[in-house]
Amino acid sequence: MDREKLEPVKDIDPKKIRSKELIKQYRNSGGFTSSLIAQADEIMKEIKEKGEKTHFFLSFPACITSTGTRGVIKELIKTGEINTVITTCGMLDHDLARTWKEYYKGSFKISDKELQKMKIHRLGNIFIPQECYGPVIEKNLQPILKEINEEYRELSTNTLVREIGKRIKDKDSILHWIAKKEVNTYIPGITDGAVGTQIWTYQQDKEFNVNLWKDQDELADIVFEEKDTSALMIGGGISKHHVIWWNQFKNGLDRAVYITTAPEWDGSLSGARLKEAISWNKLKSEAEHVTIPGEATAILPILTANFLKKK
Asked: By three-state DSSP, how is residue 155 classified?
């Protein structure tokens, strides 16, 4: 494999996808996953029609930020219709790294031993040269943390993410638009990634504390005050669970769409279908909801394209 011939990852622009007719045909096709996408489209339409009358949660894992689906997430944030994002530290890692360096299209099949010798990390079929990840994040993030520390000694992950985003001028960046649209963003696993490690390194000899209890206070204020909440949850794990966990304190989400590749029979939270959340009071029993079994980089662009076009 010739490293010089690798092609960079390009973000998807969902505004250029003509999905309306496709989803209409999905709705009438009696297909398996296709009919679930059509059902999800109806729920997304209801969320859009609710507008400011519902608090819209979006959760997603880090991995899709390394792909062109980053552009889809960015466009969702840009609409201003997302109120709260819950995600992982790796989203910060990949969004920042791709702001400063390129990621490349790769392959599932190539030898990881060969990639190690070539100093390339593999994330599925995305190739990330080592210099495009840890070193570039360290070089560029440490000065940003120093700037933020001039104003804050203690802050929530929500404030931290917005402050980092304010300093990112790249309009392809999710963080840039989170800051611009003032979207609440919580990273419950903030230590689990390159950005978390850089924060840990920075605060060794500085008065700088990321206080997760401040996140809990802010999330409590949201769910105790909001009468109607909606969610689009992509993938499972801590991001999905944080959304449904907090919504139990208002007797559950009012509507939700969930996309997952995980099987239900393993007992994991990622595999758990939304209907299971009803038994925990995390989703209202009368709520419109759908779980789509499938891979988000294929499903989300279609669903988002129609959401962006709906009035």
From this structure: strand
